[in-house]
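I would like you to help me understand the sequence and structure tokens below and explain how sequence relates to structure.
___
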Amino acid sequence: RWVLSLQCKGSRNFLSALRRAVEVDFKDKDKHKSQGLYLLTTGIPDQETHTVSAYVAEVCRGFDLQLHVCLFRVMEGTDSCGIIPARYASPRETANAFREIVQAASGRLHWFGEAGIFESDDITSIVSEMEKAKNYSQKCAFLVESLKQRS
């Protein structure tokens, strides 16, 4: 419920926010087997992707932390408040950058817009499992048919 009362504000200084989250806000991190951190964003971080990915990989290796990104409707040229960001990227470039970042953190990317879900690692995984199940089912059906024909 508290999330509904939040207002969008701040910058895209990803490294500063991540440092605060892992160095200050993760209380008793050694007592937990694993932890997840969700980044809710509308655009690319101010810092270069390779710099963010390297930091994320180092931090996440230090303790079992996964970074997941929920990328909401990327607006061309401005952020959600109409302010031109310090670093610009197209919607596709933004998604590609976050894909690289979450891979460094063994996390997942979810990209949503007004038209629905553009990309989601969870949905991709589910579809892959369904395809495997369908293929297995077809092989089983073929095997059963071939056994019937032999009898």
User: Anything to note?
Assistant: The CA atoms of residues 78 and 84 lie 4 Å apart. The chain is about 45% helix and 15% strand. The longest strand covers residues 65-72.
